[in-house]
């Protein structure tokens, strides 16, 4: 039986670092407040002129090189993003053109911070049915241009970066994706949104004046939602496959906030050391955060052949899910 394996991983973050101390000079905040409540110490900010597809392409090239695969080998490109270069066309077709992935069809996916996990699940369907042999899944976000830099509730949280995975089939029964589990609850749409700029509130002087084209969020509600549903999603994946919490070797998680990850793992009785944390260096990079964490853990040699990896992610929507795979 064919299953889907991750053949290569890659990541990219812009050079410019914005520290918590820098933010102290921009809004009424402190390094202590940000560090204690979120675990974030610094985040990356894209250079002027740098766009989301540029970051996606660099991460993708690293993943392609690791997979030993050329851009022309790709059958499909999926970019998970809420910060595409422009509303139309998709970021994915721009990535396709920049990579020279001439054979691939390409499209974007909107599931916010859960986007890469949703993308991996979609890619899995195409691989297992034999419709595609090489798929590039990228999570890329340029959130510094969607953040209201006068709003201390949100501007301290986010950063710019991209992460990529090249997936393909494996016939090794001991390796690959075991299952993915996706969920959405649109009744919670209001707790994290960019309300302006779409068909409901098209771009206008009023939308701009009221900062409706920037991220707005109810942090407390997100926190409560995340720590409730993420443990359930991990348990659902384990139960579906007759596995136990103790079987998990690594957690690869979207990183919104260190306290969310700590609380979820505590509820599951999973030691924090099993999770690759890099939030202190990047902040919340939305769809990019999960593939970046996977890439860093992979390149650091943490993931051994056959290890059981549990992935989890949650984002605006709310949209969330989990995945299990053998490395
Ligand atoms: N610096 C200093 N004070 C601040 C800051 C800041 N950057 N931001 C908010 N405050 C203040 C608030 O104004 C409030 O002051 P008040 O009591 O005088 O009104 C006080 O701190 C407490 O605010 P709360 O929002 O209640 O703080 P809380 O303890 O809930 O922490 C936080 C806020 C860190 C956002 C928390 O709710 C959280 O982690 N939520 C999850 C949000 C998240 O991760 N969002 C990312 C996107 S979603 C995703 O990726 C899944």
TrEMBL record:
Q: Subunit details for this protein? A: Homodimer.
Q: Does the keyword Lipid biosynthesis apply?
A: yes
The written remark on domains in the entry is: The last Arg residue of the ACP-binding site is essential for the weak association between ACP/AcpP and FabH.
Domain Beta-ketoacyl-[acyl-carrier-protein] synthase III C-terminal, chain residue ranges per copy: 238-327
Q: Which organism is it from?
A: Methylocapsa polymorpha
Q: Which domain of life is it from?
A: Bacteria
Q: What is this protein called?
A: Beta-ketoacyl-[acyl-carrier-protein] synthase III
- Domain Beta-ketoacyl-[acyl-carrier-protein] synthase III N-terminal per the UniProt entry, residue ranges: 107-186
Region ACP-binding, annotated ranges: 255-259
This chain's function reads: Catalyzes the condensation reaction of fatty acid synthesis by the addition to an acyl acceptor of two carbons from malonyl-ACP. Catalyzes the first condensation reaction which initiates fatty acid synthesis and may therefore play a role in governing the total rate of fatty acid production. Possesses both acetoacetyl-ACP synthase and acetyl transacylase activities. Its substrate specificity determines the biosynthesis of branched-chain and/or straight-chain of fatty acids.
Named in its record, the pathway it takes part in is: Lipid metabolism; fatty acid biosynthesis
List UniProt keywords, sorted A-Z.
Acyltransferase, Cytoplasm, Fatty acid biosynthesis, Fatty acid metabolism, Lipid biosynthesis, Lipid metabolism, Multifunctional enzyme, Transferase
Q: Where's the active site on this chain?
A: 113, 254, 284
Family membership: Belongs to the thiolase-like superfamily. FabH family.
The record's catalysed reaction(s) read:
malonyl-[ACP] + acetyl-CoA + H(+) = 3-oxobutanoyl-[ACP] + CO2 + CoA
Q: What is its main location?
A: cytoplasm
| Gene coding for it | fabH
GO terms assigned for molecular function: beta-ketoacyl-acyl-carrier-protein synthase III activity
Q: What is its EC number?
A: 2.3.1.180
Q: Where in the cell is it found?
A: Cytoplasm
Fetch the Pfam families from UniProt.
ACP_syn_III (PF08545), ACP_syn_III_C (PF08541)
């Amino acid at each position: 039986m064919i299953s889907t394996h991750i053949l290569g991983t890659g990541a990219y973050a812009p050079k410019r670092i914005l520290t918590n101390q820098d933010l102290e000079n921009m809004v009424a905040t402190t390094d202590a407040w940000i560090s204690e409540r979120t675990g974030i110490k610094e985040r990356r900010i894209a250079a002027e002129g740098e766009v989301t597809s540029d970051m996606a392409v660099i991460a993708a090239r690293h993943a392609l090189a690791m997979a030993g695969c050329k851009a022309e080998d790709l059958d499909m490109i999926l970019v998970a993003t809420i910060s595409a270069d422009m509303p139309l066309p998709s970021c994915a077709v721009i990535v396709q053109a920049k990579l020279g992935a001439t054979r691939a069809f390409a499209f974007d996916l909107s599931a916010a911070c859960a986007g890469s996990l949703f993308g991996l699940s979609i890619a899995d369907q195409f691989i297992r049915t034999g419709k595609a042999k090489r798929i590039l899944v990228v999570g890329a976000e340029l959130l510094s241009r969607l953040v209201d830099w006068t709003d201390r509730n949100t501007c301290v949280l986010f950063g710019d970066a991209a992460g990529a995975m090249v997936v393909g089939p494996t016939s090794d029964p001991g390796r690959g994706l075991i299952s993915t589990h996706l969920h959405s609850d649109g009744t919670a749409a209001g707790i994290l949104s960019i309300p302006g700029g779409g068909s409901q509130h098209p771009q206008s002087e009023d939308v701009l004046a009221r900062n409706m084209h920037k991220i707005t969020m109810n942090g407390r509600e997100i926190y409560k939602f995340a720590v409730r549903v993420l443990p359930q999603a991990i348990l659902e994946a384990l139960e579906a496959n007759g596995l136990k919490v103790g079987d998990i070797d690594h957690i690869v998680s979207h990183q919104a906030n260190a306290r969310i990850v700590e609380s979820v793992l505590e509820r599951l009785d999973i030691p924090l050391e099993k999770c690759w944390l890099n939030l202190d260096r990047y902040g919340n990079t939305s769809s990019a955060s999960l593939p970046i964490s996977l890439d860093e853990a992979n390149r650091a040699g943490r993931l051994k052949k056959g290890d059981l990896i549990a992935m989890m992610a949650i984002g605006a929507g709310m949209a969330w899910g989990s995945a299990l795979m053998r490395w």
